[in-house]
Amino acid sequence: MRGAQIKGWGSALPEKVVTNKDLESTLDTNDEWIVERTGIRERRIGGSTSGLAIEASRLAMARAGWEPETVDLLILATTSPDQQIPASASTVQNELGLTCGAFDLNAACSGFVYALVAAHGFVQTGLSRILVIGSDTLSRLTDWEDRGTAILFADGAGAAAVEAVDGPGELLGYDLGSDGSARHILDADIGGYMHMDGKEVFRRAVRVMVASGNAALERAGLTIDDIDHVVPHQANIRIIESACKKLGVPVEKAVTVLDRTGNTSAASIPLALVDGVDSGRIQPGDTILFVGFGAGMTWASAVVRWQP
Question: For the Beta-ketoacyl-[acyl-carrier-protein] synthase III N-terminal domain, which residue ranges apply (predicted)?
Fold first, then answer.
């Protein structure tokens, strides 16, 4: 049997910090209101999708001990590429000195989990080393005069070096889904800003996170009691708390960074993962439930046994 494990990880955030206090000068809002409704205290703004992806990837490759010529594939999950053509993955591949195939994957905020599951599938076809990246610069798609979105979105990147191993590997179960009829609740036309129906996003997000998380657990042959950590999409603390409650897991098991990062779309789950691992909270042998949702509407969950 041939499986895969994450052997290296890395993250990248822009230097510029925008606090809730900073937003008070341009928006009809205040720090207390934002924290109460979102859990966000500050966010990072700046850089390019490819630049942040490169920085995170170098850290992941170094930790895994990979040389550029040994990488078989690069998957960049992003909803904010640097340009329409070519794919930002090509820029990242070139700057990292890779010679392998590379492509963008757009599943919005669910993108990293989609890419992680895809990487495990590619391992089954014979590939051995796959670089999985979630990188977004949503500040470029944000109307900074729109209180409903300006307080939420930010920039960042996270990367994972996924390597083939003998045996079943780390991916125990997963669930992927999409519902195009919900396109209207969060969208952005080419060249335009994001528009969001916050109440509808909240309602649908909790529902699909719970259903998807349970589906992944069932596929893994586990229950929520077997989970040591939940690493959710970092969109809104109220969504995370509500989803955890309905899943039947203590919110204390949720690994969160959104108070410092805001909503970084495809980068949010790997940013939380890296923080959990580097802080020592996530330990080898722990079982993790990744659960995300995003525009589309998309959703994705994966149950992983952490064995770096």
Answer: 103-180
